[in-house]
Write a structure and sequence with these properties.
0% strand; elongated
Length: 109
């Protein structure tokens, strides 16, 4: 099997900590890092596989939402009470990332 060399840069404190952990595990640093990376990749793959169906549904819903017009037809709005209209607007605002004061959290106003 062909071997490849990968060079990484990290803080000295991180390097020392990795060395100590590798020693405690009875491994050299390379084997320890390969083991840790392989374990992390397997975990990520398992999570992605587990949520693939949900991710596909979210993508499908996002595409469907993009096809909807930004403004509902007047007839649909007329069927709602004032309270229902406010609740719908508030819910849509939350979905679109706005808080109850019509601000986008995390963005400068």
């Amino acid at each position: 099997m062909t071997r490849a060399r990968i060079t990484i840069s990290l803080e000295q404190e991180q390097a020392d900590r990795i060395r100590r952990h590798a020693e405690r595990a009875g491994m050299d640093v390379s084997a320890y890092l390969v083991h840790a990376a392989t374990r992390q990749m397997a975990e990520s793959d398992a999570v992605e596989e587990q949520f693939a169906e949900v991710d596909a549904l979210i993508t499908q819903a996002d595409r469907a939402a993009e096809e909807l017009s930004a403004e509902p037809g007047r007839e649909a709005v007329a069927e709602l009470t004032e309270q229902e209209r406010r609740e719908v607007e508030e819910a849509l605002g939350l979905v679109q990332g706005r808080d109850r004061r019509s601000r986008c959290p995390g963005r400068a106003t």
